[in-house]
Specification:
The protein is mainly α. It has a single domain, classed as Peptidase M41 (Methane Monooxygenase Hydroxylase, Chain G, domain 1), CATH 1.20.58. The protein is built from seven helices and three strands, in the order αββααααβαα. It has helices at 2-17, 51-68, 78-88, 92-105, 107-120, 125-136, 141-155, and strands at residues 22-26, 38-41, 122-123. Strands 2-1-3 form a three-stranded antiparallel β-sheet. α1 (2-17) runs antiparallel to α2, α1 (2-17) crosses α5 and α2 crosses α4 (92-105). The longest helix has 18 residues, at 51-68. It is globular. Bound molecules: zinc ion. Zinc ion is lined by residues 7, 11, 61, 80.
Length: 156
């Protein structure tokens, strides 16, 4: 289960680094869709403008999972891989090394999002953004996230 958390956190953090829209991220399995988790990332726009970024986001799940556990079973990655290849327009190797580099550079942020997913099961896109921003600013993400959730509750 923690491998899935790192996988989804990899997608989420790299998606945010590209300033693409991020929806809910979950490690609660959906047996109907045969998914161990999911990350609602922005998809390609049909004009090719963000194809490489979307492909890198797809690859980042695998790269994060691999860094966390090099011996993991990556059997469920078929969909990510097919989509990444389709959007890579023949540059899959180059995009994969970019994805690996981004995972490396954002490892503390990915770890924190994975930790929050393990604790809460599901995070909203904005909550992932709060976690990543907290770490970027050297703050305690748990404190900032709690404060954010508290302030949202007051607004509702
Ligand atoms: Zn994935």
């Amino acid at each position: 289960m923690s491998g899935v958390a790192y996988h989804e956190a990899g997608h989420a953090v790299v998606n945010l680094r590209f300033c693409l829209k991020l929806g809910p991220v979950t490690i609660i399995p959906d047996h109907n869709k045969n998914q161990e988790g999911s990350c609602t990332t922005e998809r390609e726009r049909g004009d090719g403008s963000i194809d490489s970024k979307v492909a890198i986001v797809f690859l980042a799940g695998y790269e994060a999972h691999l860094k966390y556990d090099p011996a993991a079973d990556f059997g469920s990655l078929a969909y990510d891989g097919v989509e990444a290849i389709r959007l890579s327009h023949g540059r899959i190797e180059e995009l994969r090394s970019t994805a690996a580099q981004m995972v490396e550079n954002n490892w503390r942020q990915i770890e924190a999002v994975a930790m929050a997913l393990i604790e809460d099961g599901t995070l909203k896109g904005e909550e992932c953004e709060i976690i990543v921003g907290s770490i970027d600013e050297g703050k305690d993400w748990r404190v900032v996230l709690e404060w954010y959730r508290e302030s949202i509750r007051h607004l509702e």
